[in-house]
Amino acid sequence: MIKRTAAVCGILFALSVAFSSCGFSNKSIVRMQHLEEGVDHPTSVEELKDAISKYQKRVADVQIAQSQIGIWYKILGTRYLDTKMYGEAMKCFESALQYYPDNQNLYYYVGICAGYMSHSALDFNAEGSSVKKMNYLKLAESSYLRAIEIEPRFSSALYALGILYTFELDESEKAIPYLEKLLTIETKHTDAMFVLARCYYSTYQFDKAVDLYDKILSITKSAQKKADAEANKKAALDAAYSYEQ
């Protein structure tokens, strides 16, 4: 599939070079199309109907080709994502969005790539600036929000946004409504419960944190998760007692 994409791109590039080098104008191309379709200057009803039919087919062919290009960009982007080439993956998803601007999955993938790219946005000039990193994090945020706007029950984007707010942007309060919504969709998502409980703890809602840890203990079969929930529950109870004193 990828080889076929490269071949198509090569053909398109060669044609563009040929047109430019031969001095083709828009009028020349239109004349070529007229000759190819045999509908130079339709005048009668039948000629007009015939012209419409022929050009409708041409438009349909272009639409099919463009939709396939968008799909190829998405496939190539996921291949790069699988190999952790996040910069290249993000470029592909950005290109795919030109063809599918309302695809929630593409925005989600852009968010994932931007999140990873923020970790590599080092201050190479040693200027003490984190602007580049924050730009990537804000891109991730806006991408996840757009994905959720398109598909409000998009669980992966809801969870990713919760993680972003909690651990990357240190804005636990913003994470809470998205994680709460996620848990109405996936009621046994224990990883989301851990993150949400942490958000409750950070915003001094200790009772809610304790309730979530109890829920985790009641449904998980993982010994590690049980141990973590027990330890975190104790920390929340201790914090609640200290807060009340």
Protein model, in words:
- The relative contact order is 0.05.
- The chain is mainly alpha-helical and 245 residues long.
- It is built from eleven helices and no strands.
- The longest helix is centred in the N-terminal third of the chain and has 38 residues.
- It is 80% helix and 0% strand.
- It has a domain of 76 residues: Tetratricopeptide repeat domain (Serine Threonine Protein Phosphatase 5, Tetratricopeptide repeat), CATH 1.25.40.10.
**CATH homologous superfamily title of the domain at 170-245:** Tetratricopeptide repeat domain
What is the CA-atom radius of gyration, in angstroms?
Answer: 27 Å
Distance between the termini: 66 Å
The percent of residues in helical segments reads over 70%
Number of strands: 0
What about the largest sheet? Answer: none
Second rung of CATH, namely the architecture of the domain at 170-245: Alpha Horseshoe
Could you report the average pLDDT, rounded to the nearest whole number? 84
Highlighted features:
mainly alpha, 11 helices
Furnish the topology, listing elements before pairings.
Elements: H1 2-21, H2 26-37, H3 45-82, H4 86-99, H5 104-119, H6 131-150, H7 155-168, H8 172-185, H9 190-202, H10 206-219, H11 223-244
Helix pairs in contact: 3-4, 4-5, 5-6, 5-7, 6-7, 7-8, 7-9, 8-9, 9-10, 10-11
